[in-house]
Amino acid sequence: MQQSEATLTEQPVFTAPNLKAAHFFMSAHTPSGFVSHFDRLYDTAGGWRAYILKGTPGVANALLPDAGNRLEEAGIAVEYIHCVSDPDGVSALVLPQLKICVADGMPPHCIEPEFPGVVEDEIMLFTPDSEKLLSQREQILQFAARAAALYDRAYRFMSAAVSLQSDTFRIAAECFDTEAVEKYTLGLAKRLFSPYGVAGTDTPRYLSGITANGVISFYDNVAASYARVFAVEDDYGISRLLLSMLREKAIAAGYSVISCNCPLSQGPEHLLIPSLSIAFLTSNSYHRAEGKACRHINIKRFMDCDSLRLKKARIGFNKRASRELYNQAISLLSEAKADDDIVRGCYEPFVDRDSAQQKIDVLVDSIINKANE
Fold first, then answer.
1. Given this model, what pLDDT does residue 14 score?
2. What are the CA-CA distances from residue 295 to residues 103, 119, 127, 171, 228 (Å)?
């Protein structure tokens, strides 16, 4: 059933009321290389506490999913932060209601405490035997270097694909009625956002990513969790202009938002407003809006479609060619991931998983106790 657009007046909060488990990326494979926003997992001035896990690559990533499940079972809202380099695991758990995060501090994110003991606590899950580990030195360095070269090649293919998509964006921009979308956005914002007088905040996340397993999107997770979903139909990348306007107006009205940029163009792709349980999700050929959607906004309503049709062949070529380039990038990412797995395999004989599991269990127990206080 379509929900009313009447403005809600509760104070802004971070998590949607019915959102107990959310999934995001905070890193991305981009045309410019690997980008990580793990430095924005928590707010050092906002009363947050961060637990940074150390050990060897891949260990915390493999153990954090079960830790998140335990926290969920205890009734705690959990954000699972995945890493595009190893999407099968979890690189961080964010608990917004408790202002706590637990993060894998090993590469590729390499998180280091800024205020040790005051904001961050570093937890060494176990200490590997360095002398024995030296026997794996040559193999580790060899496959790590090979993986780095493969990642670099993948980023070059992404860069070529984005160049084609940028051409499509420029074509669409020439047919875009900016005045019409500004008028529409102003009216929508007036209906949805009740001003509080204090500017809100903007939290970065990625809702999708290009990974060794292909394009992964947590689109359905968000669509199912938010009460009102606006699906912005757009195959040209032009919706970023509408979403930018909405983001500015929501923040100016005092709402805390989650901005999900496209990992390739780095332009706004999705906008989440948890306190209103409203999500604006871009729907295109990579992540199509299906199932629950309160309202569809077709970006073509703001475009000169007759002029756009004159460029149909060029837009079609850009779409087909960029998809092929992305497929090549994904293939290279898969090869790089295989080399990364070999590196982790070199560490595996020296991993004390019992010690690591025990320390994570103790940490989870302490968090659950804090939540029950």
1. 41
2. 36, 42, 53, 26, 8
